[in-house]
């Protein structure tokens, strides 16, 4: 996802119920705090992946927050992962799919470790991390998961290129389909207006 999707990202996060916001951010994020968070996403540095429905509503998204270069001098490159899925889109494996894509994306950029900071009660996120082989450390109500990433390969680079292209094609297809649907609705409305005005004139 790119800068052009910033408004959809805001809309997605604002649509999260209060408890989901709490699990995603670790605190009860207000609307203003969510807007401020999205404003901090630097698309030239961080990466955001999303899943859209046919109405181009963002129903699931993941954020890879890269550390700035100055923070990498004393340890291997790492990136923090965060994910959210709207309630109506749960149970379809979207969170796991975004996690797998993020892992591939990060390793292809030479990232050594994927980091997840979550509340201990966020069992869905921690289960995804644990299944991937992450080391989960709990400290009271909070948990941290560390996933050591393998180095990139030619296969992983090609896989990412294919997935990225397929995602863009899928997005453009949905965009054009939505425009066509809107055009059909508009034509239908015009025809209805003509029919109503013709009927009134004949009376």
Approximate strand percentage = 15-25%
Biggest sheet layout: 6 strands, mixed
Judged by helices, strands and strand pairing, the structural class is alpha+beta
Total number of beta strands: 6
Radius of gyration: 21 Å
Quaternary organization: single chain
Helical region count? 6
Tertiary shape? globular
Residue-averaged pLDDT, rounded?
A: 82
What percentage of residues falls in helices of 4 or more residues? 40-55%
H/E element string? Answer: HHHEEEHEHEEH
Give the strand line-up of the largest sheet. 1-2-3-4-6-5
Span between N and C termini?
55 Å
Catalogue the unreliable spans: none
Topology record:
Elements: H1 6-14, H2 18-25, H3 31-39, E1 47-52, E2 58-66, E3 78-85, H4 94-107, E4 113-119, H5 123-131, E5 135-139, E6 142-148, H6 154-202
Parallel strand pairs: 3-4
Antiparallel strand pairs: 1-2, 2-3, 4-6, 5-6
Helix pairs in contact: 1-3
Describe, in short, the structure shown.
48% of the residues lie in helices and 21% in strands. The chain has 203 residues and is of the alpha+beta class.
